[in-house]
Specification:
- It comes from Simonsiella muelleri ATCC 29453.
- Keywords: Membrane, Transmembrane, Transmembrane helix.
- With about 750 residues, the protein is mainly α.
- Helix content is about 65%, strand content about 5%.
- Among the domains are: about 180 residues, no CATH class; about 170 residues, Up-down Bundle (Cytochrome C Oxidase, Chain A), CATH 1.20.210.10.
- The strands form four sheets. A three-stranded mixed sheet has the order 2-1-5. A two-stranded antiparallel sheet has the order 3-4. The chain has a two-stranded antiparallel sheet with strand order 6-7.
- The protein is globular, with a radius of gyration of 27 Å.
- The model has no long low-confidence stretch (mean pLDDT about 95).
């Protein structure tokens, strides 16, 4: 450790404390997760719904694409309704009408003010306080509620089938006809939707709040933010201000300014002879941009489906490529190509760490990993298609080989296992180069933090395997966000920082001490908020107040290190002028500059827009979430992956030069397109939805009546301009990478 001892102890302390919090509260998630009651019975003793019915419904929902067709508990896609909020509201309205008709012989809307007040008070009491599960696992429902559930269920059974009365609605929700052909499966699906609505309306035992902390906003039963919601929202702002203040103070008073090293006359990395494993990376570069193009074309199709539903400029595509499948592939492709870009960077650096040579069979391992990635991509896509379009997979077969139903982890469990093995193979290939380097003399602190980061990237996809087909949603979300948040936003970030520090040091742009210090400090800063900040995704999925408190407090700290990224952006941009030979690295450096900008805006500003509990209570499941997702996922990790691929290309094909004209246009078109998507469509629609959610409830903000209004459709049409702009820029970038990959390099 030497002179970095304090920084290492700080990092160890951060990891120990934050993972203890994540583990301890994870145990709380398991213990307090909303239960699956053994059965729901009517007041007259009739069994209405059993646990087995709900679990079969969960499987049926997964086979339709799950979160890729509408959302449940606020997580998923944004075109169709949130089925939890929608089912709950429809059931409440039906209960009001049935009760009004029974007691007063009128519809609820025709009652007097006093009569309405009496009926609404009974509604709130019955739903919030009288539908608790007893010690035998039974929930007793009134006959009126049983009738309401029966009547509402008919709507979903017809909607997911082929009833022509709902053709227009299906079109507006971008649902293909016969989304779920089997009638029995549709009945179970509605029972699963009912269960999610029950968790959102029944008070948790010994609490005045529901299992979902009163989410979604539903005025009819007084689902509104809890006191704890307000308290921890205010506290998160205080923690943010405190963190920013301490960071700025520490940056200026504790930072030791190292003298800039003398820049070499020749690129040091250009002197290193390419190894067989490095030469093989041209395939990875090509696969990265091919999947990138596939992803953005699917994204354009998904965006257009929000306008025409089942058509693409009049062409009926939904039978072959429905919205749920297109969105599945869109998100999975993003995960695949970004991860491939990161793996490419690691595999290029590995032989450099090993003294410029490959361990035995390293090239074979690199090629085998490529084949494995190809198999996972093709196999998972085929499984998704078989499940959603052909409807040939159901139950456990669907979960294992078709569609798990959960955003970003949509691929069947079999393919997920293969992908996990692939990441572990990558980790093995990296470690067999890195471990021998520790035996050499000299300071190994920078190598140690880099190795720690590759262990995080290689191993932390595996927690996505820790839930099953019928795991309750609160527990599933806990593990899902280990992957989507902790793996991507945590360990990818640390890996990127350490990898860039390693490369810049080897290029002679920064001193060893500066690179090591920056990597250790960045690791602590990113993880102190990033690890327990995972809980900010779980406020309303069926967790308790301590989870909300921890998530709100630490996720505010996630924004803190992003405040000073303007300085990092300038550094990356200025490196291209550090020496004449650095001009070859201009475009990787421009990508890294864009990463710093979008980290601050997409991850920082737009992330904090939805992080505090009070804001997310109203914004969860709206287009404001997509604002953060697009700005952070592509703006940060997408540009990082592209930058890595471009940098590797500069060395594996040293005689190839990226065309400056095309790269300039491509770079700025992508940034302009991303800004346009957010500012011209996603954010305005999200703001209008937020107003509707605060005023009427989430059900209305996601309803057919609201989302299909002409002015909102206009915003979606306007987005087309930005989508085309972005796609054009991406194609220009991809063409250059493909040319690099296929070029015949004389030096090789």
């Amino acid at each position: 450790m030497g002179q970095y001892k304090k920084l290492w102890y700080t990092l160890f302390g951060v990891l120990a404390v934050t993972f203890c919090l994540l583990g301890y509260l994870g145990k709380e998630v398991y213990r307090q997760a909303p239960p699956f009651p053994e059965k729901y019975v009517s007041a007259s003793g009739q069994t209405l719904i059993t646990k087995d019915d709900i679990l079969k419904g969960q499987s049926a929902w997964q086979s339709t694409g799950g979160m890729e067709l509408g959302s449940v508990l606020g997580h998923g896609s944004y075109q169709a309704p949130d089925w939890t909020a929608d089912f709950l509201h429809r059931e409440l309205v039906m209960w009001l009408d049935l009760t009004a008709q029974k007691d007063y012989g009128k519809k609820f809307d025709d009652l007097s003010f006093d009569q309405k007040a009496i009926v609404q008070a009974r509604l709130k009491q019955e739903y919030r306080e009288q539908s608790a599960m007893d010690s035998s696992g039974t929930v007793k429902l009134s006959d009126t509620r049983a009738k309401a559930i029966e009547e509402v269920s008919k709507y979903y059974i017809d909607l997911y089938g082929d009833n022509p009365a709902y053709n227009k609605t299906r079109d507006n929700f971008a649902m293909k006809t016969n989304t779920l052909p089997d009638l029995e499966s549709r009945k179970h699906l509605t029972q699963f939707f009912f269960w999610t609505a029950w968790t959102a309306s029944a008070n948790r035992p010994n609490s005045v709040a529901t299992y979902t902390n009163n989410w979604p906003h539903e005025p009819l039963i007084d689902n509104k933010p809890t006191t704890e919601n307000y308290v921890w929202s205010f506290a998160s702002v205080v923690f943010l201000l405190m963190g920013v203040g301490l960071l700025v103070w520490g940056y200026h008073f504790l930072r030791k300014h190292e003298p800039a090293p003398k820049i070499p006359d020749v690129d040091p990395l250009s002197k290193v002879s390419l190894t067989p494993s490095q030469k093989a990376l041209w395939k990875y570069a090509a696969l990265t941009v091919i999947l990138f193009i596939v992803q953005i074309l699917l994204g354009g199709l998904v965006a257009h489906y929000t306008i025409e539903g089942q058509h693409f400029y009049g062409i009926p595509l939904s039978d072959l490529l429905p919205y749920s499948l297109a969105r599945t592939w869109h998100l999975q492709s993003a995960l695949f190509w970004i991860a491939t870009g990161f793996l490419t960077a690691g595999l290029f650096i590995a032989p450099i760490i090993n003294g410029g040579k490959d361990p035995k069979y390293q090239a074979l391992g690199v090629n085998a990993l490529y084949v494995a990635l190809f198999i996972v991509v093709a196999g998972s896509y085929a499984g998704n298609f078989t499940s959603i379009v052909l409807n040939k997979l159901s139950g456990s077969a669907n979960f294992w080989f078709g569609h798990q139903g959960y955003e970003y982890l949509d691929l069947g469990r079999f393919w997920q296992l293969l992908l996990t093995v692939g990441f572990l193979l990558w980790l093995f290939l990296m470690l067999r180069c890195a471990v021998p380097a520790f035996k050499q003399g000299g300071d190994k602190n920078l190598l140690a933090i880099f190795v720690a980061s590759i262990v995080g990237v290689g191993a932390f996809y595996a927690p996505g395997l820790f839930y099953g087909e019928h795991t309750t949603l609160a527990v599933m979300e806990y593990w899902r966000w280990w992957v989507v948040h902790l793996w991507v936003e945590g360990f990818f970030e640390v890996f990127a920082t350490a990898a860039l520090a390693f490369v810049f040091y080897n290029l002679g742009l920064v001193s060893y001490k500066s690179a090591t210090t920056a990597s250790l400090i960045a690791g602590s800063l990113f993880l102190v908020g990033g690890v327990p900040g995972t809980f900010h995704h779980l406020y309303f999925t069926g967790t308790t107040t301590p989870v909300m408190a921890t998530g709100a407090s630490f996720s505010a700290l996630e924004v803190v290190p992003l405040i000073l990224l303007g300085h990092e952006a300038y550094e990356h941009w200025s490196y291209q002028h550090a020496a004449p030979w650095m001009k070859r690295l201009r475009w990787p450096l421009m990508c890294f500059t864009a990463v710093a900008f979008w980290n601050m805006i997409g991850a920082g500003v737009f992330g904090f827009l939805i992080n505090p509990p009070i804001q997310l209570f109203y914004l969860q499941g709206l287009n404001t979430t997509a604002v953060h997702a697009h700005g952070a996922l592509f703006g940060v990790y997408g540009f990082l992956a592209l930058g890595f691929v471009l940098m590797v290309g500069c060395y594996i094909k040293p005689n190839f030069t990226y065309d400056s004209k095309y790269m300039t246009r491509g770079f700025w078109l992508m940034n302009a397109g991303l800004c346009g998507m957010i500012l011209s469509s996603l954010l305005p629609i999200g703001i209008f939805q937020a107003i509707a959610s605060v005023t009427h409830g989430l059900w209305y903000a996601r309803s057919e009546a609201f989302i299909q209004q002409d002015y909102l459709e206009l915003f979606r049409w306007i987005r087309t301009i930005s989508d085309v702009t972005f796609i054009a820029g991406a194609v220009l970038f991809a063409i250059q990478v493909i040319k690099m990959s296929l070029s015949k390099d004389k030096a090789a």
